[in-house]
Amino acid sequence: MTQQPAIIAGVGQTDFSKASGRSVQHLALQAAFAALEDAGMTPEDIDGLMPYKIGVTAEDLIAGLGLNDVRFTNVSHMGGASPVASLRTAAMAVQAGVANAVMVFVARNGRSGARVAARLSAQVPGAGLREGLEQPQGLSTPAQWYSLFARRHMIEFGTTREHLGAVALTMRNHALLNPHAMMYGRPLTMDEYKASKMIADPYLMFDCCLETDGASAVIVARADRGADSAHRPVRIAAVAEGHADNADDIINRRDFFNLGLTKAAPRAFAEAGLTPTDVDLALIYDCFTFEVIQQLEEAGFVPRGEGGPFVADGNIALGGTLPVNPHGGLLSEGHIAGINHVVEAVVQLRGEAGPRQVKDAEVAAVTGWGDLGDGSLAILTS
Amino acid sequence: MADLAALGIPRPDIGDRDLAGFWAGTAQGELRVPCSKLSGDYIWPPRPSAIGAPDFDLEWTTVPSTGELFTWTVVAQTGLAGYSQITPYGVAVVQLDDVPVRIAAYADFAAAELTAGMRLTAGFVDLGEGCHLPVWRKAGA
User: Fold this and answer.
1) Does pLDDT of A2 surpass 60?
2) Chain A residues touching chain B at CB-CB below 8 Å
3) How many CB atoms lie within 10 A of CB A136?
4) Closest CA to A327 of A351, A357, A359
5) What's the half-sphere exposure (Cβ side, CA atoms, 13 Å) at A174?
6) What is the ipTM of this complex?
7) HSE-CB of A213 using CA atoms within 13 angstroms
8) Looking at chain A, which runs of residues are DSSP E strands?
9) Model-level pTM greater than 0.90?
10) Which of B18, B51, B68, B73 to mutate to test binding with chain A, by most A CBs within 10 Å of its CB?
């Protein structure tokens, strides 16, 4: 029996801001209704829900959307790698006939409400090691953990401050083309980047992603259910997840730079029958600047150690060999646990991205990064 | 450098079932790591059994208190009690001599002096009530 491919039938988002003035349930419903309209669907069409681990629940949306028979719910436990990993679970659910249409969504008041430190305590793996060994030593945030990767990469491969800055500036330049971005209309120079305050050396403020109030929703359906959409369907060609060695501890990784993505990427490319050179644009989970460099390397877009010069040479800018995050990314569009990367990939593959459109975009790779480097990769095609 | 004992930094639970052997060692001025008697593997960070084997009879073994700076961060912003008063400060990840173990600890010297490959040696700060926190100091200092 030929399996129906799974597609992304619709996407929806709220505005992104520092202070939404709305409850997270309100934001979630706004994004959900927008995704339904985008898909040409009504609430009766949704019978599966995949919320994020923290925040708005499936029950909130069942009640708010008036869904009369949700028969599939599931939560991924991979931090920021969850929304991308959820695409696979949702695809499996619709392909298995467990559900007809699954909505994956994230809603948060990430700036005005519970900020990153509060969210972390609710989800980070290896909590005993974090509390028992790291916090007494003054180590407690993602910026600090991941800056250990960046510093070691500088030592081993000569990666520089300017390489990190190139990521920050590229994301900002892209956001200047995206009215939805929190940093729209706010250009950034290398001097301003370098002068920003230190957070966790080598990370400066502009190496760090935004904290955002907002919501995004994505509807996954079988290809034959997407017929009513006014948009070109976007196919989920492959999705894979992976977990680093060691999954619960960064400091003692023998291969220090290995990530979940290191394992997930070859699986996803093999399943899609594609290679990194086939990718027209990449949506890289840019929680911090160096994590773009690290993921470009670990996903196989550039050999390990060469990511710094690769980003500095303009390859990741619009018009470059591998445009990354045309919407401005988590660094300059906003941070909704990376599900906004999925939304951007869909908009690009439909050819509806306006002035930031990647020409002839047919294959998009979307990465997710969570917790201590859990990874996921989705390959979406038009 | 900063008087960590006076700052009210987060205190480890020295009675934690999986970490008590480590804190017993630091109270004696030693770094100790659980070791499998069967395979000889060091299990760090500590876990209840050897990795992938039902070998729960691990032995806390003294490892060198010296090593080389592998990577580090300089924390300029933190919400951690006590530490928030002394930013910026360094946290050093040290590759211990002779054993495949890295230990992250507060760098008890000016963060600007952190240099790749520098030699460091563990010191132990008495936080009171039986708790001794390892910190990294410059070798020979």
Assistant:
1) no
2) 117, 126, 128-129, 131-141, 143-144, 147-149, 151-152, 155, 197-201, 246, 248-249, 251-252, 254, 256
3) 24
4) A357
5) 30
6) 0.97
7) 16
8) 6-13, 48-50, 72-73, 101-109, 198-201, 203-204, 213-222, 234-242, 281-283, 363-370, 374-381
9) yes
10) B73
